[in-house]
């Protein structure tokens, strides 16, 4: 395996990282990360207080240079969740920015501050490819968070496959404003540009004037950020023009609505590419830079990645529906070189997440489009609605609702119904004055098959979301 960060072996004075007023060239990054890596030698795992700062980026880079597994810790975790993570991964120490206060369970660990002014040699020895690079904890929606162990080979392979899909080179300047404790912001958003020998500008938030001033060739964001950005750009044509000079806008972590696709394209002239992946799998599919993106789809599988759609289980076992009633939906199962090796300390959970023939069951539902791209319908647990003998994807109904001008946000769920099994209920944040319930129901019925229309619309001021901006449907009422 080639070195994870070739540009750090013969560093120069090109810009590598910039976070606000803090910036490092490749030469200075190699010195700071090399010195820290020397202090980490021989450790097994280190926690990283993963604030959105340059210190987090340097700390993780140093751990990887040393062949030590980095555990990025969400700085917003509650005391109980944080205690579980620290107790589960048992880190040797915690890396943090100088002077940054640490919450209780992290404060109890030996601490090593990340010194940006230090200088030391980059370790000459490249660790074996199967050595753990990262332990990233899942959101824990169905129990305590589980630590997905990602080997160095998976990180390297996935970033190289994405580079092929997006024509990503050392000439690219990436801008984003993502948190650094998950795959999107850390693996793609920090390790990606460093592996390519390019640059990262973390801009704090995806604000139109700030993004325009960054002069980025690539932009990463989540749908919530792009939704807010689209609103800004509609009244800021100068920023829209500057952002339109980028060559690639990428959205991930959730589906970008057709409405926001169109708004971004009108403002900038750029079509947003989407991609799909999980903590356990890294990125599996991506819309290619050279292809016209397909709204509602997340692209074709990356090189070396296999994806199959398994029959959806009905109440008594595998689907027995007549052909066509489930719109070609299937449970997404995957295998390939970018997958994790298992959940830390959880062989039971690792086994349960795989099929008998070794494929990883993502828990997502999807379908293939005519072009061979994958379209994600949603999560099996929350986005597959079984109503009146049909299997219905909630995402399709949400997108239809968002095409109505009076709808700002929408989340669709199934609630128990004695006649239908489940009835479709839409939770809607209105854009201004709430429309009549019947107006929205008829709007969906005009766009989709009659059985997909909501039976009830509930208006609300806001939808519950997590730190990534994903709607948490488990917190919506189902009565």
TrEMBL record:
InterPro entries: AMP-bd_C, AMP-bd_C_sf, AMP-binding_CS, AMP-dep_synth/lig_dom, ANL_N_sf. Residues 396-470 form the AMP-binding enzyme C-terminal domain. One of its GO terms (biological process) is fatty acid metabolic process. Residues 11-344 form the AMP-dependent synthetase/ligase domain. Residues 458-479 are annotated as: Disordered. GO terms for molecular function: medium-chain fatty acid-CoA ligase activity. PANTHER family: ACYL-COA SYNTHETASE, ACYL-COA SYNTHETASE FAMILY MEMBER 3. Belongs to the ATP-dependent AMP-binding enzyme family. This is Malonyl-CoA/methylmalonyl-CoA synthetase. It comes from Pseudonocardia hierapolitana.
